[in-house]
Fold this sequence. Notes:
The protein is an all-beta fold. The protein has two domains: 12-109, Jelly Rolls; 111-227, Jelly Rolls (Sandwich), CATH 2.60.120.10. The chain has strands spanning 12-13, 20-25, 29-36, 45-46, 51-56, 59-65, 71-75, 80-83, 88-93, 99-106, 122-134, 137-153, 156-159, 178-181, 186-190, 197-204, 223-227.
Amino acid sequence: MVQKQYSCDHVVPVEQEPRHHLVIANEFVRAFAVEIAPLDRTLCHHHTHDYLMYVAGDAQIVSAPRDGEPKTHTCRDGDCEISPAGLVHVVENLRGAKFRNLLVELLPAVGELQRGSDPTMKVGNGVVEAIFEEGQISVWSLELEPRAQAEADGPAIFATPYGERLFPEDPGDNAHNMGWIAADRRGLLRSQLERPLRAIVFQLGRAQEQPVSVRKRAGEPIRSLRAHAKEPD
């Protein structure tokens, strides 16, 4: 069997790699919606900052680092992984469906952020799961019932990587509907759909207190809280 060749003779920064779509950029983070077509591969690109990758949908990929052997990875929907700065690689999608992920770069100033005293998600008519915690980022999965809503304290990024929309107002024309919730602000996430919706929230900064003992194993939910909408006044 002939081994595939992955060239890194020419390297581009991640923001210039055409399958990485920069959606949010501020002094704390850069967030990308990544989409690799079936059987396609990226350009060789350089990650200059630590980053978290959230996988949206099952996938099988090859990651071919410039200074190492290509490795095949089977990804599960909801997998999360932190990678250190400096990685230079090519990524190839081995399957006949798009490989989608959300990539959150952690810039040096993220260390100045601090989460609120109650960083747990609050949902009405839905389920929230804390799925990942490491360093200065935690990841929550929200399953919202039709026309439900949730509250998320900043600093945080919300995203709907499965094709739905949040908020009554369209926050922009982008592939994955991502938005920024500033520190000391609370974002109200509303579903306008007549079917269940799944959203992902990335909370950032140092936690004042850790409400749950989070296992770091990617893709393994550690807590599920079922909450119901408040009764009308």
